């Protein structure tokens, strides 16, 4: 497979998502890392975004609630190269009625090679990486062969 570089500028665009049982964990992580987060552009699904703005005093671009399409909005922004990082504290012990949306969001992160943290330890490693504060060329699979597979020569 061929790859192409996609430049991620020093100020990253970070999507923050948490299931209800994980919102307190994500908020605690964000409070601990507030000074690091304020240098980046933040996106979040509905309730999570409102909580972050109120508790942290940071500007957050709020999308719809996850079950109402927010997960899919973030996935679309990932596919459109408008999100650089996904922090998604999902609850592995609680069934989710919108589980297909959750899987689709995680799939988009993998398809487009987006760094993804699903727990605090991984989020800590990502936010503290020296790559967070400088430009980085993320390699993305070149899907031209896929999108052009039915075109006539």
Please provide a written account of the structure.
The chain has seven helices and seven strands. It is 39% helix and 21% strand. With 153 residues, it is α/β, with parallel strands linked by helices. The model has no long low-confidence stretch (mean pLDDT 89). Helix 1 (23-32) runs parallel beside helix 3 (46-56) and helix 4 (70-79) packs parallel to helix 5. The relative contact order is 0.21. The chain has a five-stranded parallel beta sheet, sandwiched between helices. Strands 1-7 form a two-stranded antiparallel sheet. It has a single domain (3-147), classed as 3-Layer(aba) Sandwich (Rossmann fold).
Arithmetic mean pLDDT: 89
Major beta sheet summary = 5 strands, parallel
Strand content: 15-25%
Could you list the spans in which at least 5 consecutive residues all have pLDDT below 50? none
| Helical segment count | 7
Q: Which structural class should the secondary elements be placed in?
A: alpha/beta
Instruction: Give the second-level CATH assignment, the architecture.
Output: 3-Layer(aba) Sandwich
Fill in the CATH topology: Rossmann fold
Binding site for substrate: 19, 23, 45-48, 65-66, 98
Function: Catalyzes the formation of methylglyoxal from dihydroxyacetone phosphate.
Active site: 71 (proton donor/acceptor)
Domain MGS-like: 6-153
